[in-house]
Design brief:
single chain, alpha/beta, Rossmann fold, 3 domains, seven-stranded mixed β-sheet, six-stranded mixed β-sheet, about 35% helix
């Protein structure tokens, strides 16, 4: 979808006559049903007038142009893409990212800090941003990777920006990106026009434009093979014997679903440590290897960003969030691997969703509709927030409503807690989550190392020692009983978790404010070596596993000896969303601690803030 396309002569005429922003505004309203913001209209007017002058200097009059070209299954729109042929007669196109920036400062990693949305915010460097757009098109649009593809280039034009000495936007760390995707400033009209002529000098751009319009969305075979290779070579995602049996069963269900004329929905159920995520990721790898357009999605930012980092930038767009499919067409992909499906929400809309992206469908329906075969991996007892409504019953009901064939599979083998299903069952029983036969934990009859410690300092020391023995093997987590502050002005973190003389920070909150070099962002907390000195929450650890986990159990849940019952105490919680639902609060907190306590492969160590609650749990352990 684009808001404007056509011959460059028409674009120039529309811009000269001050009609271009009006035409974009009308197209925007026709597509989205309401008007764009005044700031966006003003941005179109100013930026497109500047790029029109560049085209005039370049002498372009036989080219095609796209404005506001939306990338499928993405919220991103290209500002401008101009089409034509190079001097050798090859079809070519150039993406031009337009910025009204006037200044910027150094940010973290591949980011800079500039004035955006009414304040200084950390954003991608323009060359990094436009490079992502180029890679997306080359990997996901047939016109750019099929036989004799349309060549694709990208650059940025900061038409209000005056480059100064030692300018952050030209920093050495962006050298590679700037070389691939050059940046032009206010004084670079001639260099930019020369760059464009080198790519598009032979004109005939409408032929190229129409070819791009007719291209189909779908990942290239090369991209799919790369994703499969990276996953299969990563030791973290190796399948064990019993997991292979489950994997083969799920693969067979998917193969059947692909052949079935009626849409098939696969539901794979399993508790903590049954290998759901490893099987799900290997499913993505195998399907990619076979050439299927398969995507992996979850509701967890930490899990999504970590998997994206593992796969690398090339496979970035095959790993998505549940709310990525608002604007997707039916059966747009072959297979959707929906991991952590208990995190499905009522709707993909939230308070940050632009009006242009609002959906009228339930999120689960979007996930079912987008794929020929959707596969849901789920634990019915991992809902930890009121808005998370995913359950096998809920998915089944909606699949039946949509006329789908349903296949279900239960994972029973325990891979965490030294393979001890007894430990998980003991947690369920002790916290009155589910009646089981495991009423008493006997440490002498288990290789899994579980112990209650006497202080948070002792807990941290144990986890630090384990992590020093093997990097990223141990993490400290806690119930959400302390506030989670914004980073300080210098990017360091506030020590929010205070228990007596003990004080530590939560993981690094991502708010657009620059984090200090020593602080990893929350989305990468599970696998950043520096994160051992931060406390993780349920929202960053869910879906992950470690050799050892230290858990601080706060006063949001207490055991009452008078009533012999667990009680939820929302007044002791800092989770504004969860404590707002008094009816479900206790169940949500129980599920939270069930998840935290079941993340470890070899050992779990616990500190209780409330000593009466500790006393009760100790009573359920064999002396």
């Amino acid at each position: 979808m684009e808001l404007y396309s056509g011959p460059i002569q028409q674009f120039v005429e529309d811009t000269v006559q001050n009609q271009i922003s009006t035409k974009l505004q009308n197209a925007f309203f026709e597509y989205f049903g309401f008007n764009p913001s005044d700031s966006e209209v003003r941005s179109w007017r100013e930026s497109l007038r500047a790029v029109k002058d560049v085209f005039a200097v370049a002498g372009f009059n036989d080219h095609g142009i796209f404005l506001e070209y939306q990338l499928p299954l993405s919220s991103k729109r290209l500002d401008c893409m101009i089409c034509g042929r190079d001097k050798d007669g090859k079809d070519n196109s150039v993406i031009i990212e337009l910025k009204q920036w006037e200044k910027c400062e150094v940010g973290a990693s591949d980011k800079v800090v500039t004035w955006v949305g009414g304040g200084d915010r950390e954003v991608l460097h323009p060359s990094v941003q436009v490079g992502q757009y180029k890679n997306y098109l080359q990997q996901n649009h047939t016109a750019f990777y099929e036989t004799d593809p349309v060549l694709l280039n990208a650059c940025t034009y900061l038409h209000n920006y005056k480059v100064k000495k030692d300018d952050p936007v030209l920093s050495e760390r962006f050298k590679s990106d700037l070389r691939q995707y050059p940046l032009f400033s206010i004084s670079d009209v001639n260099p930019l026009s020369t760059y464009l002529r080198e790519k598009l000098d032979a004109g005939n751009g409408m032929v190229v434009l129409e070819r791009i319009q007719k291209s189909k969305y779908g990942p290239s075979r090369k991209l799919l093979q790369m994703i499969s290779k990276v996953i299969k070579e990563n030791e973290r995602y190796i399948l064990l014997d019993t997991q292979l049996v489950a994997f083969d069963k799920v693969m067979n269900l998917v193969r059947f679903g692909m052949k079935n004329r009626k849409k098939s929905v696969v539901i794979v159920k399993g508790g903590p440590g049954t290998g759901k995520s490893v099987i799900a990721i290997n499913l993505l790898a195998e399907l990619a290897k076979l050439g299927y357009n398969a995507q992996y999605a979850t509701g967890s930012k930490a899990f999504t960003e970590t998997l994206r980092k593992t796969i690398g930038k090339g496979g970035f767009d095959q790993v998505k969030y549940f709310n990525s499919y608002i604007a997707a067409t039916e059966n747009m992909i072959d297979v959707l691997v929906a991991d952590e499906s208990h995190r499905i929400r009522i709707s993909s809309n939230n308070r940050y969703t632009p009006r242009t992206k609002k959906s009228n469908l339930p999120q689960v329906e979007e996930l079912i509709r987008v794929a020929k075969v959707p596969v849901f991996f789920i634990d019915d007892r991992q809902n930890v927030r009121p808005g998370e409504i995913g359950s096998s019953d809920y998915i089944r009901e909606n699949a039946e409503r949509l006329g789908c064939t349903i296949h279900e599979y239960q994972l029973d083998i325990q891979f965490r807690c030294q393979g001890s299903d007894k430990f998980v069952q003991w947690i369920n029983n002790t916290f009155s989550i589910k009646k089981t036969s495991e009423a008493i934990w006997d440490p002498k009859n288990s290789e899994f190392d579980f112990k209650i410690v006497n202080s948070p300092e002792e807990l941290y020391k144990l986890i630090k020692e384990k992590n020093d023995q093997e990097a990223n093997s141990a993490r400290l987590v806690a119930g959400f009983c302390w506030p989670w502050s914004q980073p300080k002005e210098d990017g360091t973190l506030v020590k929010d978790v205070v228990i007596g003389d003990f004080a530590m920070t939560w993981e690094g909150k991502e708010t657009g404010r620059k984090l200090a070099p020593s602080v990893p962002p929350a989305s990468l907390w599970p696998y950043d070596p520096r994160a051992v000195d931060q406390i993780g929450s349920i929202y960053t650890i869910q879906g992950f596993e470690f050799e050892y986990v230290g858990v601080i159990i706060g006063k949001d849940i207490l055991y009452n000896f008078e009533t012999n019952q667990w009680e939820g105490h929302p007044e002791n919680s800092a989770d504004s969303v969860a404590k707002g639902d008094h009816e479900k609060f206790l169940d949500l907190v129980k599920n939270t601690y069930r998840v935290l306590l079941s993340r470890a492969l070899k050992g779990c160590y616990v500190y209780f803030v409330d000593k009466e609650t500790e006393k009760f749990v100790r009573s359920r352990i064999e002396a």
